[in-house]
């Protein structure tokens, strides 16, 4: 049974996004956002050692389904075997290193290198080597595809190049228990959007790791979200923030009308309740004592019911409070009772370029079949994934340029940006940086 929402909601009232202010700001050396040497250290010491979201179970639901995941120079091939098992391998032929399989798809019966024809079964066992006698004594069992750790959680597929890595659930810390009420496994991914960005992967990740920027970059949101009473938690590899929607930000000096709060929600979040921009305030549907958030929740339940999803178990707080989780190094997901958006940032060809990958999902009736998502790619200039995310993307190139300026030696971060700080704290640990190259100040 879920705890009474009224009690849970009241527990948030006195919590804010800052918490206890630190003694001073945290200073982060800025060169780690553009230094080739620092990026090389990440490739050597961090990326091969961390759990990374690669795809969803919708990508690899059936035997013969496959998905190629790339992160910097690393390639991982995820395959659903004939036996139904999910496996992952380093995407390298054991002959001369050619990528065995690229892209994603279905119907694989074997894994055959397109260069010289070495062939493995879907469990990674070498089965055929053309002109094998030319290699002399070559024992087939000595050349399986190199394994990669793979695991799934709530429909998300993670990989780790370190076969001795801690289990995924241990890496996720408190997150699974904290969001268990949301039934994330009922969501289905219908599309991914990869956006090529002129910014470092950390510059991208920082944008979805704090709410400090809402008041300036997203003025529309201030009219329908409380960005001040947005408590944060840090667990280790992971962190969390949650924000109540359907209410105005306390930053406004005057009170907005219910109609104005509704209009702002419709403009920025209306798709979540099936409301097109301009949908009028439903005054005729309002019952005595109902808040704007209650009306949003009622519309969201009706929208879900239209696709066969019962949200009667979710009260207003479950539907309108957005829970955002960060998973080191590069992932966030945002969830409430009828919403799940997952985002990852990944390194590009050099430290000044990266990718933002957005996984778009919808909640379906429990046990709904899985269909292949549409995987799309675009540029930052062309991407329009909604008003808020578009604003986030458009600021990134300017951020990255500014980081190069010779007078800027450090980022200056506040307690409200503690999830950004935590990412750097973990990064310093994985890279084993000397004290002189670490953050200073803060707590």
From TrEMBL:
Region annotation (Disordered) ranges: 1-23
Top-level taxon of origin: Bacteria
UniProt keywords, alphabetically: 2Fe-2S, Iron, Iron-sulfur, Metal-binding, Oxidoreductase
Cofactor: Fe cation
Protein name: (2Fe-2S)-binding protein
Domain Rieske, first and last residues per copy: 53-159
Signal peptide positions on this chain: none
InterPro entries (alphabetical): Rieske_2Fe-2S (IPR017941), Rieske_2Fe-2S_sf (IPR036922), Ring_hydroxy_dOase_asu_C_dom (IPR015879), Rng_hydr_dOase-A (IPR001663)
A molecular function GO annotation: oxidoreductase activity, acting on paired donors, with incorporation or reduction of molecular oxygen
Provenance organism: Mycobacterium alsense
């Amino acid at each position: 049974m879920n705890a009474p929402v009224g009690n849970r909601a009241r527990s948030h009232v006195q919590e804010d996004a800052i918490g206890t202010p630190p003694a001073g700001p945290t200073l982060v050396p800025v060169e780690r956002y553009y230094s080739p040497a620092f990026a090389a250290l990440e490739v050597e010491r961090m990326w091969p050692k961390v759990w990374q979201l690669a795809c969803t179970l919708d990508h690899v639901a059936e035997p013969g389904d496959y998905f190629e995941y790339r992160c910097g120079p690393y390639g991982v091939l995820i395959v659903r075997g004939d036996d139904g098992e999910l496996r992952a391998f380093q995407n390298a032929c054991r002959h001369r290193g050619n990528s065995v399989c690229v892209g994603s798809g279905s119907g694989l019966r074997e894994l055959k290198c397109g260069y010289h024809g070495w062939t493995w079964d879907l469990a990674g066992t070498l089965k055929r080597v053309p002109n094998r006698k030319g290699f002399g004594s070559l024992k087939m069992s000595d050349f399986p595809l190199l394994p990669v750790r793979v695991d799934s959680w709530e429909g998300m597929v993670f990989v780790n190049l370190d076969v001795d890595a801690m289990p995924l659930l241990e890496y996720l810390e408190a997150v699974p228990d904290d969001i268990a009420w949301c039934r994330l496994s009922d969501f289905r991914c219908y599309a991914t959007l990869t956006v090529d960005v002129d910014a470092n992967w950390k510059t991208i990740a920082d944008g979805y790791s704090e709410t400090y920027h809402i008041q300036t970059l997203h003025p529309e949101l201030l009219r329908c979200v409380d960005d001040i009473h947005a408590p944060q938690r840090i667990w280790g590899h992971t962190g969390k923030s949650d924000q109540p929607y359907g209410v105005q930000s306390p930053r406004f000096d005057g009170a907005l009308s219910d109609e104005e709060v509704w209009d702002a929600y419709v403009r920025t979040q209306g798709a979540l309740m099936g409301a097109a921009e301009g949908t009028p305030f439903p005054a005729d549907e309002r019952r005595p004592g109902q808040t704007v958030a209650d009306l949003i929740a009622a519309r969201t339940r009706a929208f879900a019911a239209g696709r066969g999803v019962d949200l009667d178990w979710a009260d207003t707080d479950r539907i309108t409070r957005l829970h955002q989780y960060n998973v080191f190094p590069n992932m966030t997901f945002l969830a409430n009772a009828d919403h799940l958006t997952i985002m990852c940032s990944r390194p590009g060809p050099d430290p000044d370029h990266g990718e933002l990958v957005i996984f778009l999902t919808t909640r379906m009736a429990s046990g709904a079949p899985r269909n292949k998502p549409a995987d799309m790619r675009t540029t930052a200039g062309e991407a329009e994934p909604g008003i808020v995310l578009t604003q986030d993307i458009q600021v990134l190139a300017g951020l990255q340029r500014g980081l190069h300026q010779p007078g800027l030696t450090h980022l200056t971060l506040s307690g409200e940006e503690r999830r950004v700080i935590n990412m750097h704290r973990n990064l310093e640990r994985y890279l084993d940086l000397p004290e002189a190259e670490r953050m200073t100040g803060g707590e």
